[in-house]
Amino acid sequence: MINFGPGSLHVDVHLIQSYPYSNLNRDRQGAPKSAKYGGVMRARQSSQNGKRHTRTAVEKATGIRAVRTRGVPQAVARRLTARGWTWEQALAAGQMLILAAGVKGLGIADSQGTNALLFLPESALDELADLADDRRGDITQAVSDIAAEEAKAAKKTTRKKAGTDLELAPGAEDDEEPAVGEGSLLAKYAAKIFPKAAVLTVLRSKNASVAAFGRMLANEADSGVDGAVQMAHGLSTHAASTQLDYFTAVDDILQEEGTERGAGHMGDQRYTSATFYRYTSLNVTELLDNLDGDTPTAQAVIAEFVRAFITTVLPAKASGTAPFTIPHLTYVTVRSDRPVSLVGAYETPVPDSLEGYLPRSLQRLNDHARAHHRFLGTSGLITHAHSGLADDTFDALGDRLDSLDDLIARVSDTLAKELS
What is the residue extent of each domain of the chain? Predict the structure, then answer.
C-alpha cells in the first residue's frame, strides 16, 4: 500500500528542459512519441524510458544493481558452469529453480528463459546458483532420468506413427507432452529436488533498486513491491509536430572510382524539437518501508535518484543528433503531505514566440506553483528550492541555489532532520 497523506514524506522534482532536433523516445513506427494534452499534440517522453535510464544511473552510482530479465535460467547456468557444471545440467538446474517456485503461469519459454520478465537483485542469481549447487547430485540424476523418459516417449511415438503400436499399454496416456511449465517432466523433478519456500524466498528478495522502482509478478502477490518512485510522461509545454528528415548516404568506393553518381543509400527519419516539462516524485516513507528502515541506504538512493533524473542522458538517435542538454530550470520540493505535479501550467499550450518557448515556460511554472501555494497552503511544504541555467530568481519556487550539488544537499539535509 502506497503511503500518501499527512505524515508521509515526498521529494518532488520538476524540470524544464529544451531539446534540439532529436528523437529521444520513438514509437513502433520509429517516430517520436506524442500525446494529446490541452487539445493539441505534444512531444512526449515515456515514463518507462525515463525510469529505465534513471534506474541504471542510480545503480551505477550506488553499486546496488537489480536485473529485469527473462534470462534468469541462463544467468544461473553461467554461474554453475563457472563452478564446473556442464551446460546441459546447469541450464536444467536454472529452469528447475523457476518451476520449483510453483508460480501459476510462470514457465520456460522456447528461448529457454522464462516466459515473463523477472526483476531481482543481481545477488539473487548467485543465491539461486547456490541452491542448485547444494543439490548437484540430485539434478545430475534428474537430467539423466528425464532424458531416458523423453527417449522412451519418443520411441513410443515413432512406433505408433509406424502403425506397430496401435494399442496403448494399460495406464499409458495418449497425450502430447505438456509445455515446459506446470505438469512437465522438468517441473515434476523440480518439485522433488527444491523446497518451494527456499526458491520463493530468493524470488521475493529485494534491494535498494527494487525498493525504489517496484516489482510486480502476476499470481505471486508476496513478491510485489510498491515502488517508491512515480514518474510522469514528459510533455512538451507547447504544441509540437513530427518533422521528416530525408537523408542520403554516399558510397565512398563508388564515388572514388567515379563509376556511379548519386547516393549509395536513401531513406527518411522522423524527429521533433521541444521544450519539455518533466516530473517525478519519490515517496520517502515508502522507500524506508521497503528497505526495512535502512535510513543511510535510503538517503544515498534519494540523493543519487535526484541527480540521475536531472542529469541522465536519453541516448536514442544520439549519434545523429547529440541532444545532450541539461535543464534550464530544476525545482525540487520536500513535502510532508502528498506529491504535487505542476503539469497543469501547460494545459493551455505555450504559444509560438520569437523568444522561443523557454521564457514563458519558466514563468508559467512559477505562476502555477504560486497558485498551488495559495490554494493548498504551505504547511506541507517543508522546503523548496530551484536552480539551473536560467539566471532568473523565481519567487514561488523557493530559494535560488547555485548548483545541482546545492540542490541535492538541500534535499539530503532536510531529510536527515526529518528522519532523525
Answer: 10-64+225-419, 68-206
163 pLDDT above the threshold of 80: no
Beta bridge partners of 42: 35
* Cβ within 8 Å of residue 251, ≥6 positions away: 260, 263, 264, 265
Q: What amino acid is encoded at 263 in this protein? A: A
- Do the beta carbons of residue 231 and residue 280 sit within 8 Å? yes
Amino acid of residue 351: P
pLDDT digits (tens, 9 = 90+) for 350-408: 999 999 999 999 999 999 999 999 999 999 999 999 999 988 899 999 999 999 999 99
The position carrying cell 522546503 is 383
230's CB contacts (< 8 A; 6+ apart) are 280, 281, 282, 283, 339
Q: Are strands 329-335 and 10-22 parallel, antiparallel or unpaired?
A: antiparallel
Query: Residues 83, 134: contact at Cβ < 8 Å?
Result: no
Weakest-pLDDT range from 26-30, 72-76, 212-216: 26-30
Number of Cβ within 10 Å of residue 292's Cβ equals 9
Q: Who contacts 375 (Cβ-Cβ below 8 Å, separation ≥6)?
A: none
Q: Give dist(CA 237, CA 349) in Å, integer.
A: 6
